[in-house]
Amino acid sequence: MRATVSPVPAPTLHSSQRAGTVATPYLWPLSNSLELGALPTAVPCARLHARQLAWEWGLSGIAETIELLVSELTTNSVQAMAGHDGQPAIRLRLLNDNAQVRIEVWDADPRPPTPKDPAADGMPDLEAESGRGLFLVGAFSDRWAWVTTQEPAGKTVWCELDIAPLEPEIDGSTAQPPLPQRTPDAVHVRPVAIMNDLDILRRLRDGLRNLDRF
User: Fold this and answer.
1) Which residues in the chain land under pLDDT 50?
2) What residues have CB less than 8 Å from 112, skipping those under 6 apart?
């Protein structure tokens, strides 16, 4: 397992397209890549890497969705490389421009991904060992497609997840939820009665003097 941080060389893309989407070169401000062996253990490693990266990028609110998408795309690549000779590797890349997150997974199998047709109710077979990945990618991401690559030869399956912007205040700063304020308890003040009866005051004075004698 090997991780590198931007800038990293990306696979060279040509004009292959799917669903009318063509991969366009774009300089992402934040980029991170990870190379993994095409083994079942690659999936939990990719999820953990994505979780940590989402935290570093301040995307904790959508971290679970990023993890899910990374997991499904990584699983598809591992399955695509099953049966290949040698020790094939897959490459995970995550990109972020503060408006969207892009997840790319490359493998050396140039064949297009083949999502399985859903059942009559529109849902995939949840008990099947495969076939759910691209359905979930399409359901939880905002865009997804795939492109073939020449250097190195293979394909990249990618998806993008939009980042919801925070609502700014009037002065342009980020709105923060107001802190809870404690309401002070009502203070009950008992009025002080003014004693003007001289006879009572004298008896009180004499009583205090008698206490001094004990």
Assistant:
1) 4-24, 179, 181-183, 187-192
2) 18, 146, 155
Residue with tokens 């063509």: 22
Q: What is this structure's pTM?
A: 0.64
Please write the tens of the pLDDT for every residue from 133-177: 788 899 999 999 999 998 889 999 999 999 987 555 555 555 555
Q: Which among 150, 138, 60, 167 is positioned nearest to 106, based on CA atoms? A: 150
Domains and CATH numbers, the chain: 2-162 (3.30.565.10)
Percent helix / strand / coil, the chain, rounded to 5 = 30, 25, 45
DSSP reduced 3-state for 144: strand
From 141, 20, 128, select the one nearest 73 (Cα to Cα): 141
